[in-house]
Design a protein that fits this description.
The protein folds into 2 domains: 10-237 and 442-466, Aldehyde Dehydrogenase, Chain A, domain 1 (3-Layer(aba) Sandwich), CATH 3.40.605.10; 240-395 and 401-426, Aldehyde Dehydrogenase, Chain A, domain 2, CATH 3.40.309. The chain contains 15 helices and 20 strands. The chain has helices at residues 29-47, 51-67, 69-80, 84-108, 142-153, 167-179, 197-202, 215-227, 250-262, 279-294, 314-329, 367-370, 386-394, 409-418, 451-457; strands at 10-14, 19-24, 112-113, 120-127, 130-134, 157-161, 187-189, 206-212, 231-235, 240-244, 272-278, 333-336, 340-341, 353-354, 357-360, 377-383, 403-405, 425-426, 445-446, 459-466. The chain is globular.
Length: 467
């Protein structure tokens, strides 16, 4: 690995008030080299481990998560502003994810015999080695679990380059694995800057790369990995449609729609972002949806009454402000919100809050029409029929998740078939779960996480033929 300057410190900043809580010095070239050497030694050892050993490690990590749930959730909320109840839910979900892969991975990785002209032919799944994960801050635990649980069960080892805004969470994860008894090098956090990533990707001891992040970051990493012929999985965000048709249960569609837009302050790749509503029910839906967004409590994420916390950074908040103001200037109608909010510590320490917002009269030249809106801002469009709903839903570079609300079986099947997305949820909000593959098409990414498909992504799927 060629030496690269370690770069500026990595900071934990409280998004509630902008307070700098802690600085971490990134690892320099020698620090990275030491960790890659440990990973190289661990990879063949872990590849030879039994499924029982792998499963035991994941279950022990799950037990630690469950036993320390409030303390771990506190770290998440402090670093990135997620309401404490949502952070607790994320920790519990991670424990469940570890347990699911611990229980099911062996069956999904069992050799498969194939009937051909041979005494024996089979497909076998073998690990690749060290997988570098470049992860985002919005679900700072669950995003990592989506990669590391299947990777470890397949016999790979993990290197985590986490987002620079969540270094405490990154180090907490490394410590969890250490205390769970993971052998040295099986899971390591790399506190490094973006400039150090290309050299790590190119290092011969790194076998594959997975990234969740922006389209720009994904394309850059894809180019770097492609230049050295390494496997990649990319999850690059979305602008998910939420389609409401005349037969929908409107009360339920409104209630779930509000949750689907503002969970995690709207900072979710699979959040419903574009609400596409049939004209026959548009007035009723709009009235209820706007009322629901206006009623949300914005404030201190540790207050049990808070439903929407701050955005993760000042820069993230400012992007939302710029997108909404651009839409306003170009003729959009702001039905509610459209402004920043002073946080619980007052105007001297206002934090990074933004009021839940609904925008209509969207035009193609607006930034919100083409960019991912990563905050509590909903875009509302009215359409005349199912054909137009599909056309509007698919008119985006993204293709991650989608939600359609209809009780008509033929309509359900049509939207399942024709929505251009990696996931279609009917009469419910899009969520990720261990049992189903997760990922998108178009600019939303390459490959899949979770389920058997995610488990196999970082395997050498080897054909064996014996005469």
């Amino acid at each position: 690995m060629s030496p690269v300057d370690a770069g500026p410190p990595i900071a934990t900043v409280n998004p509630v008030n902008g307070e700098l809580l802690q600085l971490f010095e990134p690892y320099d070239a020698s620090g990275v080299e030491a960790r890659l050497a440990v990973a190289a030694a661990a990879a063949p050892m872990w590849a030879r481990s039994s499924f029982a050993d792998r499963s035991r490690l994941l279950v022990t990590v799950a037990e630690l998560l469950e036993g320390e749930l409030p303390d771990i959730a506190h770290v998440v909320t402090t670093e990135m502003g997620k309401p404490f109840a949502q952070a607790r839910g994320e920790v519990a979900k991670c424990a469940g994810g570890f347990r699911w892969f611990a229980e099911h991975a062996e069956a999904m990785l069992t050799d498969q015999e194939v009937a051909v002209d041979a005494s024996l032919a089979l497909v076998t799944y073998q690990p690749l080695g060290a997988v570098l994960a470049i992860m985002p801050w919005n679900f700072p635990l669950w995003q990592v679990v989506r990669f590391i649980a299947p990777a470890l069960m397949a016999g790979n080892i993990g290197l985590l380059k986490h987002a620079p805004s969540v270094p405490r969470t990154a180090l907490l994860l490394e410590d969890l694995f250490r205390r769970a008894g993971a052998p040295d090098g099986v899971f390591q956090t790399l506190l490094v800057g973006t400039d150090q990533v290309p050299a790590i990707i190119a290092d011969r001891r790194v076998a594959a790369v997975t990234l969740t992040g922006s389209v720009g970051a994904g394309r850059a990493v894809a180019a770097q990995a492609g230049a050295v012929g390494k496997k990649i999985v990319l999850e690059l965000g979305g602008s998910d449609p939420y389609i409401v048709l005349p037969s929908a249960d409107l009360d339920r569609a409104i209630e779930v729609g509000v949750q689907a837009r503002v969970q995690n302050a709207g900072q979710s790749c699979i959040a419903a972002k574009r609400f596409i509503v049939h004209r026959a029910v548009a007035d009723q839906f709009t009235q209820g949806f706007v009322a629901g967004m206006e009623a949300l409590s914005v404030g201190d994420p540790f207050d049990p009454a808070t439903e929407v916390g701050p955005l993760v950074t000042e820069a993230a908040r400012d992007i939302i402000v710029a997108q909404v103001e651009d839409a306003r200037a170009l003729g959009a109608t702001i039905l509610c919100g459209g402004q920043t909010v002073v946080g619980p510590e007052g105007p001297e320490r206002p934090g990074f809050f933004y009021r839940p917002t609904v925008i209509t009269d969207i035009a193609p030249g607006m930034r919100v029409a083409t960019e991912e809106v990563f905050g509590p801002v909903a875009l509302l469009s009215v359409v005349d029929d199912a054909d137009e709903a599909l056309a509007v839903a698919n008119d985006t570079e993204f293709g991650l998740g989608s939600s359609v609300w209809t009780t008509e079986p033929d309509e359900q099947q049509r939207f399942v078939n024709e929505l251009q997305a990696g996931q279609v949820f009917v009469n419910g909000m899009v969520v990720s779960m261990s049992e189903l593959p997760f990922g998108g098409i178009k600019s939303s990414g390459i490959g899949r996480e979770l389920s058997s498909q995610g488990l196999h992504e970082f395997c050498n799927v080897k054909s064996v033929w014996i005469a």
